[in-house]
Design a protein that fits this description.
This protein has 148 residues and is an alpha/beta fold. The protein is built from 6 helices and 5 strands. It is globular. Belongs to the UDP-glycosyltransferase family.
């Protein structure tokens, strides 16, 4: 994996030969608890209907939803969670400010929104990595309207 993204917990031990025929969704929520949790719920609903799901977010946000990730992994649903490096320093945000509700002041909202566009390169880099377990490239991306 590149330093810009890494795969984390998943339930990928599904029959690899059948994966290439399954629809694959890529979910990219806005980094805010009120968006993250419903998007995880959507991931679980999609995966329960014979689809593959990749959920992409940042390390801090993955840690914040760790119990939900653990439940998804225990359910054996085909969901994988991918960490994307969030460029907080590049846009002048304090370390760890990877969610709207973690911003210490409203003045940092614009730099946070600017950082969202910088997630494109790590996401594209992750998508270029050949899949080891035979998942097809995502056929559908579902993201919040602030992810361009």
């Amino acid at each position: 994996m590149s330093s810009s993204s890494q795969a984390t917990m998943s339930s990928e031990d599904v029959d690899c030969s059948s994966n290439t025929k399954r629809l694959h969704f890529l979910l990219i929520p806005l980094m805010q608890q009120g968006h993250m949790i419903p998007m995880v719920d959507l991931a679980r609903l999609l995966a329960a209907h014979e689809t593959l799901v990749t959920f992409a977010t940042t390390p801090v946000n993955l840690n914040r939803i760790r119990p939900i990730i653990n439940q998804a992994a225990a359910s054996s649903l085909p969901i994988r969670f991918v960490e994307l490096c969030f460029p907080v320093v590049d846009v002048g945000l304090p370390e760890g400010c990877e969610s709207v509700d973690l911003l210490p002041s409203v003045e940092l909202m614009l730099p946070f929104l600017n950082a969202l566009s910088l997630l494109r390169d790590p996401l594209e880099a992750h998508l270029r990595i050949p899949d080891k377990v035979g998942w097809p490239k995502p056929a559908c991306r579902i993201s919040d309207n602030l992810h361009h």
